[in-house]
């Protein structure tokens, strides 16, 4: 999917919501296990059917699928296929936090872009250029590079200031990744909503790139602050909510409750898009 | 496996070799596809049977298994089971470079330690404490944290010096991880053989921890330099070779050739252990 197509979807749907499919086999409603269908897939399918008109992206979190082994990978595979078939306008993010030496990252890129039809994969920057570039070799696919994450541990290393130029590690990641062929058309960055006050600074370095913003909801980030400091002319934001949507209810009503939670966020987003004159 | 047990295995086998199972479905000998057995598993089994007495660890590289989807995960599963059953004295490393916010890292830990019986998993430090600690919650299991990697991209960020204390990012990783409960009994570090000259400095910070050292062989690192600067009283090294061993030959003789390549490294290691007075 191109940047222009993503922006068109945002305007048409009046939403920049990404729904995180952190599908935990221990948290999904029990009645799903009574059916013949795989319970995790049935859960994803119901969430997708209930929210697809309200969001522009889904983000399966790989850990939750891997943790149930082979069956989990089968669910992941089917989920991506289901979204691509039923909702081809939706951007799909493999939240996998991969990154390894060149010949290994090439295999990860093949996994997510060659075998499965994800639009992007989250990549950790610690190992530098050759760990990231293989993901850029796929035309029409994106890298989503970790810059400033939403968790407490972000303060351990991401704010270290380089003695040479006073720049923080996450700023170095933003700047350096541009030299690897990362452009607003093939690279997004993870910036946590819990650090929204840093967004102005970040926008000064990467004015045009899309940002994947986790941390609104369960982690305490504010949508208003994210929009205030992070929105650009093309919106430039994909704001993720996982637990707040998919576990809004644990009864047979879970999909309706997920829709309500997604709808509430979409309506707030619509207002922010209007305030910014984007729609 | 405890540190003492690992050290005993090193002395008994006169080896600190780790064989990297970077099993590439496009590189394994063609004749393996003629049998009823899964070719990747047949390859791993033959390599393991040919090298188990010469090494103390195996390191499956997850990317290579994931890149063939569900079948690859099944091979990974069976490979770990096979090693644990036939060679219970071997330390098994999931080279997965994982790391995410706490509740997600917890799921990754469950994958590798709860469901599969790996002894350790490689973890990227970028996201800090809460991304690493869940892996330490498993008694008898280890974290193998990326510190100074063997690739060219290591120079992008790992050598950035903190303006506060002049310490490099990889040194901060070593020091900070000690505050997370990382000890020589539950935490190892990845230090690339291609940066062997940094090992003295690294040993000053973590004298007793084991180091997982990739980069000898195909990537150009020197075993002699690694031993000179990195060995401690308990050896403290697991030196990995992947391609140089498992792809030593691509005919029906591949397992013998792998054994010869492993044997050559083991003999050099034996000499280094003798020179250091460890055996």
Molecular structure report:
The structure is a homodimer of 279-residue chains. Chain A is an alpha/beta fold and 279 residues long. Helices cover 43% and strands 15% of the residues of chain A. The first copy, chain A, contains twelve helices and eight strands. The first copy, chain A, has an eight-stranded parallel barrel, surrounded by six helices. In chain A, helix 2 packs parallel to helix 4 (70-86). The longest helix of chain A is centred in the C-terminal third of the chain and has 22 residues, at 254-275. The two termini of chain A are 21 Å apart.
What order do the strands of the largest sheet of chain A run in, or round the barrel if closed?
A: 1-2-3-4-5-6-7-8
Oligomer: homodimer
Strand proportion of chain A: 5-15%
CATH homologous superfamily grouping of chain A = Aldolase class I
Write a concise keyword list for the protein shown above.
homodimer, 279 residues, 8-stranded parallel beta barrel, 12 helices
SSE map:
Two copies of one chain form a homodimer.
Chain A: H1 3-13, E1 17-21, H2 39-51, E2 57-60, H3 62-66, H4 70-86, E3 91-98, H5 102-115, E4 120-123, H6 129-132, E5 142-148, H7 154-157, H8 169-178, E6 187-191, H9 199-205, E7 211-213, H10 223-230, E8 237-241, H11 243-246, H12 254-275
Parallel strand pairs in A: 1-2, 1-8, 2-3, 3-4, 4-5, 5-6, 6-7, 7-8
